[in-house]
């Protein structure tokens, strides 16, 4: 695997952007300057408005026409696209007073992580998708059908998916890291990073404990993972709970090992050969960011046109070549195989049976149980 | 007279600028000594060198006979009353005055006694617990005085101590200062640009100009026998008339003024040769305006151009025939009382009233009517 | 109490103007708090707004009809209005709202409505669950404040008394880094202090690691993500807030006072101790407040330079507000923080108050 980083462009990488904006977002500040710098949506006149995570979509650059422009060409619809979705909990805190009061927010489509989508669906804050107007939904990969967060599949369509595993710096670690247990090796005291995203961290520790995170339904079942994490924190094993900026600490050697996301690997390995990503022996977790239409959205038909467009395998393939995440669209692999056989064989982008069997998604939790998880996790992260 | 302070060949340079040329003089015990001159004349620099805030470039400063040129201020037995008093705003009057004795690690009961005694002398015993900001200017001035005097220094240095006070208060404080000085019997070295203040208070005055000491002497010596045109002009008011020595015999001189008039002068002290450029100094109070011409070499004719009533005296401005303006002070009820502006008058004087100085003044006439000249001197 | 300074003695008109003015102010403030704090709702809101307008218009009419004298007497109250509006809208109303929410409960986690129910258990939670973060916040902020004095005072002293013509340049140099965002500066420190970074390599090269570990500045061979890094970050970030007030108070000190102390047999160090330092106390006092208060509520330094065992109360409040959606407990924590800081400041003022200083 010696791919050039397609993600590097305009002098700012996805990773750098996330590190920066994650920091700002975490500090509870707004991002007008950064967003202005990134461009995104046009003026006020638009036919559909998509608010997504940063650097998740291919821009028009030179010969390559970006997805938004191809969409406009194909349908005649103008899309306003912003990158203000930075953190599930913070975004929720922002929209809660609006949607909770029965008012509408501006975006017609947002792409929360699946569990958050599940929460929004349960709260009744999302619209049913007009699936009849989205014939390409037939291209949805079987693995994503009838998901836990949206059992009937009527409210959401996955945008991109990925997996969480262990990223490590072989220079700082001094050896190969293979298992979740390695994260708790006292030799790495103060050199271990965990994610502030509860499901990624607890999910992986649960895998390490031999508990399947996709089947748990109560806090008690997950308690061993919390105890393990609590003890590691008290012992000073854990250096920090981070967001996307874990990659900085990893590259700087501050982290010997940490929990990380598969999509970052491509960027990281271009910056340092010492950085590696593994799905641990005990198995990893899987996640998806999914598109939903917030309740009362004004342009539902146009949102459906967009979803239909990006579920065309040709279009989806171009997105994958750009952002290196797991596509939920059938047929993408075949299209990419024709132009880039190496990428088509990469199990982190196209998980094979062996890889898939080792991945578990975090169960959809009830409100009461989720509150217990969040509270316990917050008590450990100390924030 | 016992010498308290002695300057031996002291000079001070700041880079290329000479603040004080080599100077030597001494000040005796219990003397009230004024350093008088316009700003920039070097008087404050001299004071700072005595206090120890500045080190002389050359020469020595002796205090009670010992060379203190390199001794820091806090180990010199002199104290200063600063121009803006420099009272410690966060301390009471008592603590301000006690600052010196406490620094000297005196016994606290002794400090209390000394401080109260000194506050009695400056009549501020009732204000001991006040903060300086709660006192009037004159009271602050007296605290500054007490704070310095309580240490019973060999000499007290005062840097324009009355400059910040208004006229009435200043005059009262002049008397008060003299009283206190007599009471404590300490040498006062007093820096001022106010010649009136220097004349009324001092035992001796050093008149300074542009880094030089022009003359040292008692007020009377300096007033009557100034050593230079500068001193004559700076001390009191003077009419200076340019002329040339035409003849002399003993102390009798005949001087031809620039206007052509010839005057007789009885001059003691320095001698002048025939043909030498001289200035005739006539103090305003020595001039009497009279009616009509006299032609005796002790009078000059002119026109009355201004007349100012000043209570006990009249201040008359007379324009001489060559245009030079002179000022005379005369009794209000003198026999020229009926003269009005525009009348012709003659001024005359006693033979010993005239005084000769080497050189010509920049502008002939009174030193008190030319605004530019006065400003330049300040 | 009179806001109007009467030239000679209080006229009857004057005292009644005071009563009218004060009453108007109090009513207007109450109205603002009621509106801002969502005390009233529905049609009652319009009633309150009407009362507010009536009071304002009433005072204006009174002043206008009452002639010059009444206008003069009522004018100060008119001038206070903008300030009162500001205070009411942006301080009193939010404060009221905060206190209300801190005593409220929610039916479910994602409920947007709060039921005011004198829920003191929120305060109990704040103390029991976050006691560690509270004490850490005050400890770190306290140490950082002392360090800013130790670093800032000599610096301010040198600039004020030895800066000469470079005074402004030096002050500029102190302030210039602070044109950069607070966050960027803090994050920059995490790069500087990182394990493979310049500082750690340098310290390792000098063999000072055991010394620094003994001093609890380093932990397990690292500088970053330690309590020392958090305190260091606070110290760095708040240094100007200490330095500038000290500089201002030192700058005001007449150098003649030092000369006077020298003249009165004090060495330079004694002059500093007895004159300069006491006179600069107002600056130290102001600097301490400006440093300690925001430092105690800070969360940025702990987030980027600390570890999970060094979180401060600011982090917890932020997490409870923005991630856990737990407004009641977050409000209770904010209220406790505010009250404890106010109490500390009051105590500090009592102990070191400088109001009797000229």
Please give a structural write-up.
- The complex is a heterotrimer of chains A (383), B (378) and C (358).
- Chain A is of the alpha/beta class.
- Helix content of chain A is 39%, strand content 15%.
- In chain A, helix 12 (313-323) crosses helix 13 (332-339).
- Chain A is globular and about 60 Å long.
- The two termini of chain A are 39 Å apart.
- In chain A, 52% of the residues are buried.
- Chain B is of the alpha+beta class.
- The longest helix of chain B is centred in the middle third of the chain and has 18 residues, at 167-184.
- By secondary structure, chain C is an all-alpha fold.
- Chain C is 74% helix and 1% strand.
- A two-stranded antiparallel sheet of chain C has the order 1-2.
- Chain C is flat, with a radius of gyration of 26 Å.
- Chains B and C meet through strand 6 and helix 2 of B and helix 10 and helix 11 of C.
Give short descriptive properties of this protein:
heterotrimer, B: 378 residues, OB fold (Dihydrolipoamide Acetyltransferase, E2P), 2 domains, six-stranded mixed beta sheet, six-stranded antiparallel beta sheet, C: 358 residues, mainly alpha, MetI-like fold, 2 strands, 74% helix, flat, disordered N terminus
Looking at the chains present, what oligomeric state does this protein adopt?
heterotrimer
Give the C-level CATH assignment of the largest domain in chain A.
Answer: Alpha Beta
**Could you tell me which chain pair has the largest interface and how many residues each side has?**
A-C, 44 and 40 residues
Tell me the CATH topology of the largest domain in chain A. Answer: D-Maltodextrin-Binding Protein, domain 2
Task: Determine and state the CATH class of the largest domain in chain C.
Answer: Mainly Alpha
What is the residue-averaged pLDDT of chain A? 86
Class derived from helix and strand content of chain C = mainly alpha
Share in helix of chain A? 25-40%
Task: Return Rg of chain A in Å.
Answer: 20 Å
- Return the string of H and E elements of chain A: HHEHEHEHEEHEHHEHEHEEHHHHHEH
Question: Based on helices, strands and strand pairing, what is the structural class of chain A?
Answer: alpha/beta
| Helix content range of chain C | over 70%
Domain unit count of chain A? 2
Strand content of chain C: under 5%
Unreliably modeled segments of chain C: 1-10
